[in-house]
Amino acid sequence: MTEVVRKDHELIAGLIKPEATVLDLGCGDGVLMAFLQEHKAARVRGIEISEQAIYSCVAQGLSVSHQDIDNGLTEYGDKSFDYVILNQCLQQVKDPQTVIAEAVRVGKKAIIGISNFAHISARWQLGVTGRVPVTPALPYQWYNTPNLHFLSLADFMVYCQRNGILIEKQLFVNGTSKVRLLPNVFAQTGIFLISKK
User: Where are the strands (E) in 41-174, listed by range?
Assistant: First the structure.
């Protein structure tokens, strides 16, 4: 049976050195952690708030803690992991500034994956139809979305620049294809390798 790998997971794995230590914030059901263990021989640990998702991680033999990342990562020392990952959940946390600051404190590097709320399909739906966008990367209706913050790729880059965060590498994806031209318009997802300056 052929393994189906999400494009963002493949790109994130490409940023991680073999046998690295990794903390996955908001790890969900552990699919990315399992992929990194298998393909990068990474020593991974997850943090998740959903009990059901934790059960899935444990069933796979993954190390996971039940914790709300909005409360910080006080039990972890500075630079205690090679990488801290925050993929597709920055827009869902209550205090993104604290979560980003903790990610770059606890990790030597952090990998942030975000959905682009300024993707061309979202712009069209909002500008032409006058309705809140629903796209493959943003599949929720206004009344059931878990998203609290609606940022674009450009917003995240400006945030990093203003807050002493170095973007070491950035990758942009639309579905299964990389985007190189006008990513803030044409990319559904951005993946950023960052560190504290």
Answer: 43-48, 64-66, 81-87, 107-115, 165-174
CB atoms within 10 A of CB 161: 11
Strand order in the sheet with 64-66: 64-66, 43-48, 21-25, 81-87, 107-115, 189-196, 165-174, 177-178
2-34 pLDDT, tens per residue? 567 789 999 999 999 999 999 999 999 999 999
| Closest CA relative to residue 85, chosen from 52, 53, 46, 56 | 46
Q: How many CA atoms lie within 13 A of 123 on its CB side?
A: 10
For the chain, give the number of residues.
197
Mean pLDDT over 153-171 rounds to 97
Q: Are 64 and 30 in contact (CB under 8 A)?
A: yes
Phi, psi of 16 (to 5 degrees): -105, 130
Residue 53 structure tokens: 């998702």
pTM: 0.93
CB 24 within 8 A of CB 53: no
Cβ(104)–Cβ(122) under 8 Å? no
Q: How far apart are CA 163 and CA 49, in angstroms?
A: 27
How far from 96 is each of 34, 86, 145, 159, CA to CA, in Å? Answer: 26, 11, 17, 11
Q: Are 137 and 188 in contact (CB under 8 A)?
A: yes
Question: Residue with structure tokens 């990488």?
Answer: 83
